[in-house]
Amino acid sequence: MTDITKIKNWLSETYKESVRFDEPMRRHTTFRTGGPADIFVQPSEKTDAIEIINTVSQASVPLLVIGGGSNLLISDNGIRGVVISLTEIRPEITATETGNTVTVTAGAGIKTHDLCRFAIKNGLAGMNFALGIPGTIGGAISMNAGTATGEMKDVVTGLTVLNGSGVLKNIDKNDLIFSYRKLDWQGAEPGPVIFDADFRLTKSDPKAVGDEADKILERRRKSQPVSLPSAGCIFKNPDPENPAGKLIDLAGLKGMRKGDAQISDRHANFIVNRGNAKSSDIEELILLAQKRVLERFNIRLETEVKIVE
Ligand code: EPU
Q: Which end of the chain is least crowded, N or C, by CB within 10 Å?
């Protein structure tokens, strides 16, 4: 029996209804694209997720751990091996007060937006910058997601991760190397899996936090294509003077289509799926934007989204 067959049998016997075969990944990405995963598993307990990750890793079967699929462009050919999604793990959020500071601990599979809502409801300042960032906390931290008003590194104080040896470990913020849209695991490939994160927020007036949130969301609705499937911004900003959206816009690519994929006519650093786009359509637009911006401005655009082939 091959390793993958053994894993298939073990998962079906042990995790029954949490396991699916040939699962279309378009159901699990915010682009709504991506071919089938051989084996897809969505455990509801953290302990189960740890057991699955460790067992699959030891069997040398390819493994991809995903959160909300908001930063992934998955090939139309799908994914071989096992995909494990952390989004169905029972959501846990706890808050501990020390004077005016509140440490919020949240599970990695919780949506970033839900953590922002928790903060607003409890009058905690510090999280509003992340409103509208798609995906889960784990995904957002692993790429140091952010906006003009903040990034994950500003609020994260520590993580609980499953390291390469299959052991849960606490990591202090001082040992995390964050940079622009990046969390560096110092050569570990793939990086450890984030299971929980601590955020340092500040007690504030609930109305003030709520009003600020409304303004941020309103600004986002006006400038970004929030109602169509996308992966947020496609490219990193090369530098503050040259935001990717502006460069792609100046290169004349706003509204450009390939199949049902389109460079948004609202914000050129978004590619939207207008119906039945394929990942290959999106990839073509990515390559086109990179080519035109290089020709016109001699600037190389680097993707913020991760391409999984
Ligand atoms: N611009 C254009 N044309 C466009 C889009 C933008 O000329 O089609 C210009 C704008 O007028 C503005 C400048 O480019 O002068 C920057 O645009 P914007 O204010 O929209 O910000 P951004 O740098 O494009 C960043 C984050 C967004 C975040 C916004 C708002 C990156 C790569 N993007 O966008 O994050 O929502 O600020 O805070 O850092 C994401 O990471 O997924 C994301 C969407």
A: N
Q: How distant, in Å, are the alpha carbons of 73, 142, 192, 256, 284 from that of 271?
A: 11, 22, 29, 9, 11
Q: Is 233 a catalytic residue?
A: yes
Amino acid of residue 95: A
Q: Is 181 a catalytic residue?
A: yes
Residue 82: how many CB atoms within 10 A of its CB?
A: 26
Burial of 173 (0-12, 13-18, 19+ CB in 10 A): middle
Contact in structure between 50 and 7 (CB atoms under 8 Å): no
Amino acid in the structure at residue 109: G
Q: Which of 253, 230, 250 is nearest to 242 (CA)?
A: 250
Residue nearest to atom 3 of ligand 1 (CA): 246
The SS3 assignment for 242 reads: strand
Are 245 and 43 spatial neighbours (Cβ–Cβ below 8 Å)?
no
Pure H helices in the chain: 3-15, 46-58, 112-121, 137-142, 206-223, 244-250, 279-297
pLDDT band of 118, cuts 50, 70, 90: very high
Nearest CA to ligand 1 atom 16: 243
What does R_g of the chain's alpha carbons equal in angstroms? 20
Look at residues 147, 54, 162 and name the one whose alpha carbon lies nearest to residue 107: 162
Distances (CA, A) of 114 to 102, 130, 179: 17, 10, 24
Pocket around ligand 1 at a 6 A CB cut-off? 145, 147-148, 223, 232-233, 236-237, 243, 245-246, 249, 254, 267-269, 304
> How far is the centre of ligand 1, averaged over its atoms, from the C-alpha of 257 (Å)?
20
**Contact in structure between 34 and 25 (CB atoms under 8 Å):** yes
The answer to pTM > 0.90 is yes
